[in-house]
Amino acid sequence: MILKSESEITVAAYQRKKPGRKPITKDLPRVQQIHDLPELEKTCSCGCTLNKIGEEITEQLDFIPAKAQVIQHVRYKYACKRCEETMKTAKGPKHPIPKSIASPGLLAHIAVSKFCDGLPLYRMESILQRMGVDIARNTLSHWMIKVSELLLPLYKLQQYSIINYDVAFADETPVQVLKEPNRPPESKSYMWVFIGGPPEKRSILYHYDVSRGHGVPLHILEDFQGWLHCDGHSAYDTYAKVKPGVTLLGCWMHCRRKFFDVTKTIKTEGLAHKAVKKIAKLYRIEDEIKQNCSSPQTVYDYRQQYAKPLLKEFKQWLDDNVHHVRPKSPLGDAFGYALNQWEKLTRYLEDGRLEMDNGESERKIKPFVIGRKAWLFCDSVAGAKAAEIIYSVIETAKYHKVEPYSYLRYVLTHLPNITTERELEALLPFNIDRTLLAIN
To answer: In degrees rounded to 5, what are phi and psi of residue 226?
Structure first.
């Protein structure tokens, strides 16, 4: 690996994409429609019969709309005609929700539609009605709560995976719950996201809470010890003070954003523009690391040689210019944030597994934020608790590139029959045998 000096750091050249549509994925099934010449046209003008010499294939992407069907479980009954004392009935399968008409496939479809595609239940109700199925939205909501109860053991295993690894991420976003005990409907609650576990077994965990305080990570992360990526929210500082063995890492995305917001209001280049450019150099080094470094040790070495000097230079620049800006101005706030967070902002140099920012958790809080724009609020605490569990399972599956519907369908089919922890662990998205997810 060739290391470059600061003056030689460059961004990889932009590769222009070739025009034209992308080929249709080979994973989709093919249905052939044969087009042949009429028999009369298979004779040449000279009188000879034409011979087939090849074929031309063009492809169209087709779509078959979802359809509803009824699964009948027929259980044969047997009796002894001689003594008339013995009668036996074959056992049926265990259902995700006992005595419910909802199959694993229907429950998976509703869960993915709402928690992956952001489709509110009232719209799902009308879609089902167009298909000739009349199911009230309160029934759909009840089903999702029951599904979350069934998925809770997987949720706990994902939480355990995060706690038992020494690198984690955290973030939170507001959510409104209308029927919270002893709180008005307009009260602000929060959906937290925690990410952790080894890269090949990474878990995404959502958690609903009325609080944005340090008690939430203290409760969810329990015995966690190690590095925690976060933003500048004071609750994380309090958490680190009361929880031994936790070291916080700052977020350069937040730092850059404060300077960048100033540049949008000032046309002439000034201190804010210079700060953005200096931070850009640090991110260019991270881009080079992704291209050239294959292990945490090589990442560590690269940062020590190239990022560390830039950080030292940037810190000196901040110290030299902080007295030239008004403390209560937007630029003063940006300077203050960078200097107050400096120790946390530079800790990513200490371990090659660490990230320069908290982008991992910000990207994973986004699916919830997008869904919230569609359904606006949770009706009850039970609904919010159901959301935290189902979002956790679906987003972890997506992270490991496991198709959410087929995964949930398989899990909801087999969870009622699980009897051991080993069987339960085999259902986690990063442990699942993907050949079992094929839908027949």
So the answer is: 145, -150
Domain ranges in the chain?
106-251+358-440, 252-355
Per-residue burial over 375-389, b if 16 or more Cβ lie within 10 Å, else e, is beebbebbbbbbbbb
Q: What's the token pair of residue 364?
A: 């994973």
Interval 264-322: pLDDT, tens: 888 788 899 999 999 999 999 999 999 888 899 999 999 999 999 999 999 999 999 99
CA-only gyration radius of the chain, Å: 29
Token pair in block for residue 89: 């009935």
CA–CA dist 149, 119 (Å, integer): 21
Which of 167, 181, 312, 152 has its CA nearest to residue 248?
167
Kindly report, residue by residue over 174-202, the tens digit of the pLDDT: 999 988 888 898 889 999 999 999 999 99
DSSP state of 71: -
| Alpha-carbon span 336 to 347, nearest angstrom | 18
- DSSP lists the bridge partners of residue 78 as 88
| Structure tokens belonging to residue 318 | 């901040």
Cβ distance 430 to 200 under 8 Å?
yes
Number of helices and strands (H, E) in the chain?
15, 8
